[in-house]
Amino acid sequence: MRCALEHGGVAPLIFDEYADEQGFINGVVKASMYHSGQVCVSVQRVYIPNSKAEDLAKKIAKIASQQIVGDAINEDSDLGPLISPKETDRIELWVNEAVASGAQLMTGGKRINQVAYEPTVLLNPPKSAKVSTQEIFAPVVCIYGYDSIDEAIEQANSLNVSFQSAVFSDDINKATDIAKRLEASAVMINDYTTFRVDWMPFGGRKHSGYGTGGIGYSMRDILEYKMIVVREIQK
What we know:
This protein is α/β, with parallel strands linked by helices. Helices cover about 30% and strands about 20% of the residues.
């Protein structure tokens, strides 16, 4: 039996310098919270220079706080429910743990009901916290300040899971260098970790996956090879 498996990579995004700051902010909220964050490539870890981290975190939190959580079939809803009450319990525990350990809660941080959680933005949660090391699968995004690009790349690569990642920079040469150094199966430059089209290879590295999805790759996977050998008949 052939198979391809993946379970996300606690998706990192490195922000360098980017002119369209408001567009970036709006995009981070959407890329971390659509489907209530229940997407294997949702933006979860955002690395921003220390000089800008708190300011951008506040701006991201402002947009996140305006998201409407409601019935998923209601056109006015930005976010729908989580998959089960058990998952809501887990998310609540993880966020509470991060805040108790020193994370700054910028917005959210509370459950709405059995299967809904507020859009949540955390600033500088501990590197060892579950929100920093495991797939949260929830409308929660974490912002981390960094002093150097090397530090940001080291933190982005620090986990034993790795799937899709992203870098935002107006300097394409710098962005390309960062992309090459990120340990991910796919890196988006000036777009979010959630981007994909069907023809792309889709699969994780390290402990994130086994095999590769995507139309061409999946078709190749289900092929069965056969060889016929003919020995020349001697006359």
